[in-house]
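Look over both lines:
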Amino acid sequence: MGPTSTHRNRRQHQRAALQNQVQFYCNNQLLMGRAVDISEGGLGLVGRFPQLRRGDLVKLFVSLPCTPSRNKGKLYMLEGRVVWQEEAQIGVSFVDPPLDSLLEVRGYVKLAA
């Protein structure tokens, strides 16, 4: 299921635009994509990922341009699961994010809104 209007209406968390490159590991491969948005619950990535499937676990390395703690440029490691996939975009839902990373993402979303 892609990011249809029905899907967007079911989102639990506010999203903010994010235009950063994101490195991530999946199935023992290092991949690169461009984040398009982020929330406390997950993020959207643009890129070509033919090797990914819905349900795959990914380990993401995300940098936020501004955070309340002013940790600009710090990489946050977040684990997630691919929850939807379209031709050149995937949606990743975070799985048990560390509290410090979750707070930074929450702060970024509030600052970017």
Summary: The longest helix spans residues 99-112. The chain has one domain: 12-112.
